[in-house]
Design brief:
With about 500 residues, the protein is of the alpha+beta class. The chain has 3 domains: about 5-135 and about 145-180, Beta-Lactamase; about 235-320, Helix Hairpins; about 330-490, Heat Shock Protein 90. The protein contains 10 helices and 15 strands. Helix 5 packs antiparallel against helix 6. The chain starts with a helix and ends in a 12-residue tail after the last strand.
Length: about 500
């Protein structure tokens, strides 16, 4: 089931419920309005009948001729029928042939009552109005009752109470409601189908970029590294999705290229010492040699083996991704104390006299590190500084406080680095052209390992260099609160 179909079905169901609810509400409102209008007409007829009757203090006079002469059926509407009953329920007068005796018995006595009833074969809307004299029954005068008409009047009857019943057939109102219902149902159905057609068109139009992107992604292979998803150019979330996915493809392309370069460089770096080892062994086996010659060959083979081991260890360290390798256990260390202790291992180095350490004497810097990894980081930086600077020139190791971190820098006064080479210093196997021309040994993995170790500690490494004036590498390591174990625990 496609996304367009699911979205369309959801909104069409919601629209159907909305239109249905609106139609039902409008139908009920029209029904209430029509019934209210009919009730007002019935009440107006009752008021007209009541105003024509004379309510005396102790009796009510009824003049039939006067009521029959009133126009009680406006044109274009349901005709109003009425009937008058005395206090005993006897019919006094009526209009038409409508029999409201059943309604009089079904409806309660007192006040004004309106209700829909079935009288015969039709449904009627009936209203009852009870008229009483001005005085209560105990206060009524027992005097004369007029049984005959006044001069110029028709026969007049006098009663203790009077009940007026008015009614109209609901067939005309029901016909109007049927028309309203069919109209609302037709309009709602028409609107629903129009909305369905418009939603289908708009849904396909809006989701067509997604379809094109999916089709392009399905047709891409491992060799289509430069191909990207088509951007819809709609300046909305779909364009953001396409740009984000294209960015991911670009990053994957760069990662694959780096992996290919890494594999090629690793093969080259491993092939060189292995070739040297094999050549020296084959050369030594061609003829018998004195022990001193074999010792020299073994020393040379040992040097190549050590170099090969260093390359393999560096490759293994760099090849382990964050997801595949566990984070080493970090220890809380006071960096100044640790650095002074670590530099003791460089006392026998030929450049030991050129090393100058500037630590933080008064304000210690506590960090969380893995001491063996930090030792490898510092050794790689010092080894680079010694290789690319002349003997006798100083190599300065300095610690400086920063906001929330401490900067460990190694600075030399060597040949420096080309500005174009600075962005590639931390790429695996990268070696500048000047370093290769100079003949300095190296695999190009030392700075890559430094960067990886710094990231393991949650820090970063930066490089600054000026051609002919030396280089400066700075490792920024986050600090922790100073409430730490005593220095003896380092």
């Amino acid at each position: 089931m496609s996304l367009a179909f699911r979205l369309g079905a959801f909104f069409l169901v919601a629209l159907a419920l909305l239109l249905g609810g609106f139609s039902v509400a409008l139908y009920l409102l029209a029904r209430a309005q029509l019934r209210q209008h009919l009730d007002e007409r019935l009440a107006n007829v009752q008021d007209a009948l009541a105003s024509a009757a004379e309510i005396e203090p102790d009796a009510i006079e009824w003049r039939p001729a006067l009521q029959r002469s009133m126009d009680l059926a406006p044109a274009g509407e349901a005709p109003i029928s009425w009937a008058a009953f005395d206090e005993h329920g006897n019919l006094l007068d009526r209009s038409g042939a409508a029999d409201f005796s059943q309604a009089l018995r079904a409806l309660p006595q007192g006040g004004r009552v309106r209700r829909s009833l079935r009288l015969g074969d039709d449904r009627w809307r009936v209203a009852v109005h009870h008229l009483r004299p001005a005085q209560s029954p105990g206060e009524r005068a027992t005097g004369r009752r007029r049984a005959g008409p006044r001069h110029g009047e028709s026969s007049v009857s006098v009663h203790a109470s009077l009940t007026l019943v008015t009614g109209a057939r609901e067939v005309i109102m029901e016909s109007a409601l049927v028309r309203v219902g069919f109209t609302l149902a037709g309009l709602s159905t028409l609107l629903w189908f129009l909305a369905a057609a418009a939603g289908l068109f708009v849904g396909r139009r809006v989701l067509s970029p997604v379809t094109r992107m999916a089709s392009t992604a399905a047709s891409m292979t491992a060799n289509d590294r430069t191909q990207r998803l088509p951007s819809p150019g709609t300046r909305d979330e779909l364009e953001v999705l396409a740009d984000s996915f294209n960015g991911l493809l670009g990053r994957l392309h760069e990662a694959l290229e780096r992996q290919e370069r890494f594999t090629g460089d690793a093969s080259h770096q491993l092939r060189t010492p292995l070739t040297a080892l094999i050549s020296e062994i084959e050369l030594a086996r061609r003829r018998d040699r004195p022990p001193e010659e074999y010792r020299r060959v073994l020393d040379s083979i040992l040097g190549d083996a050590v170099r090969l081991r260093q390359i393999v260890e560096s490759l293994l360290f760099l090849a382990r991704s964050d997801a595949e390798s566990e984070r080493p256990a970090l220890e809380s260390v006071e960096l100044s104390l640790w650095l002074r202790d670590h530099l003791c291992h460089w006392e026998n180095h030929p450049r030991a006299g050129d090393l100058h350490c500037e630590t933080l004497e008064e304000s210690p810097a506590w960090v969380k590190i893995h001491p063996p990894l930090l030792s490898q980081l510092v050794d790689n930086l010092l080894d680079n500084a010694c290789k690319y600077s002349n003997p006798g020139t100083p190599v300065v190791i300095r610690l400086v406080h920063e906001p929330g971190a401490v900067a460990l820098s190694v600075e030399d006064q060597g040949m420096g680095i080309e500005p174009l080479d600075l962005p590639h210093l931390f790429d695996p196997f990268f070696r500048s052209a000047r370093a290769r021309l100079r003949g300095t040994t190296g695999s190009g993995l030392g700075l890559s390992v430094v960067q990886r170790i710094a990231q393991t500690f949650g820090g970063r490494v930066t490089a600054e260099s000026e051609l002919g004036s030396g280089s400066r590498f700075v490792v920024h390591i986050p600090t922790i609160p100073s409430a730490m174990p005593a220095p003896s625990a380092v």
